[in-house]
Amino acid sequence: VTAYPYIPNALPEIQQRMLREIGLDSIDQLYDTIPQHIRFRDSLDLPPAIRSEADLRAHIEALLSDNRHTGHNLSFLGGGCARHYVPAVCDEIAQRGEYLTAYVGDPHISPGKYQALFEYQSMLGALTGMLVVTPPTYDGSGAAASSLAMAARITGRRRVLLLGAISADRRSQFETFLSPTVNIDQVDWDLKSGLISETELQAKLGDDVAAVYFECPSYLGFIDSQARQLTAMAKASGALSVVYVDPISLGVLAAPRDYGADIVCGDLQSLGLHMNAGGGLAGFIATPDEERFVAENPAILISGAPKPGGQGWSFAWCTFDRTSYIKREDTQDYYGTTQWLWGIIAGVYMALMGPHGLAEVGETISQRAAYLRRLISAIDGVTVMAPETPCFKEFAIRFDHSAVTVAEVNDRLRVQGIFGGKDLSGEFPELGQSALC
């Protein structure tokens, strides 16, 4: 008998003791509910076991050597997940045992973690112009869907308007998350300017609209100069305005609250998170510090209070009873906690960069995007979409006047060690052969 008999063991005598404890004679009885004809009876054709750590490392490295990543290639991939430089201190802190845990911890035993998350909330609140910021959830699309569900509960209305170009993946998440209780309507946008049609928005607004949702920058990279008008139109009809942002743009763009946003959401990937085979993604929601917003916020929020006698501050859960964690099956929304580590790393990134650093990064991104736009517009057969409309980080290009498809262009670029832009021709057939760079 081992010192720890409660640990599962493959020894026959241990197996028999465990089976007797649950009233069975054999392991096969555990699988009685599985029909015989679908049980696998043959031997698995597996290679010999690798018993040496050195041999295992060599084997894994050989497998990984077949992959090509954005560190090896010049990358123009984006669409919500892009390769930004991650300072070494972000990786160092992400690997520290005080933070790198399987769960969020408890404020009584993890005060440092809760202080770090409070600092992240405070800095992101300064960028968005909001006083309440959630710890991260799974991704930006999930946070946006929760934001729209919040708006429906706050207003008691059951229709939301989506403005402008939105990725097919995000639209699919909205439909999954909001159906069947909330109806989704799309407001068209102008293909020539890339901007949202105010006329069509006005036509679709009504007393059943809970929220007007738009992205700034948009999925195609456009910065809509009408943002203030859009939020004003939503407010005039009694709807809330939900704005999705790329937080790294807020070093140079106005805080969403300044142009009237009621709820701000987005993804933290650009703030110190690696791509990691598709993310490093972490969504957030930011709102004013008003009861109607906080009461419908499903996330665990962290607040701080001074300790007695001026002995510093304590950080813990705030209004815990309203969260999906407490309400469980009775909740009308669900907001996960698995991405909290990314909130700490985003906080490290924002603290490291500071206001001037974030402004410098934003200016650099804008200048490089504008420079690339000019270079590509000079290529025969390639058209830059809406060249007069300002963009941030990304922009759309079209190959309709060339003799090749986006897939063919990207195949040729890979040979040159370049990852081309995301193919948009499936998401937006009206744009023809187009890509997001």
From TrEMBL:
Q: Which residues form the Glycine cleavage system P-protein N-terminal domain?
A: 13-378
- Return the InterPro entries for the record: GcvPA, GDC-P_N, PyrdxlP-dep_Trfase, PyrdxlP-dep_Trfase_major, PyrdxlP-dep_Trfase_small
Q: Does the keyword Oxidoreductase apply?
A: yes
For biological process, the GO terms are: nucleoside metabolic process
Q: Which UniProt keywords apply?
A: Oxidoreductase
The molecular function terms of the Gene Ontology recorded here are: glycine dehydrogenase (decarboxylating) activity
State the Pfam families in the record: GDC-P (PF02347)
Question: Which NCBIfam families does the record match to this protein?
Answer: PRK00451.1 (NF001696)
What this protein is called in its record is Glycine cleavage system P-protein N-terminal domain-containing protein
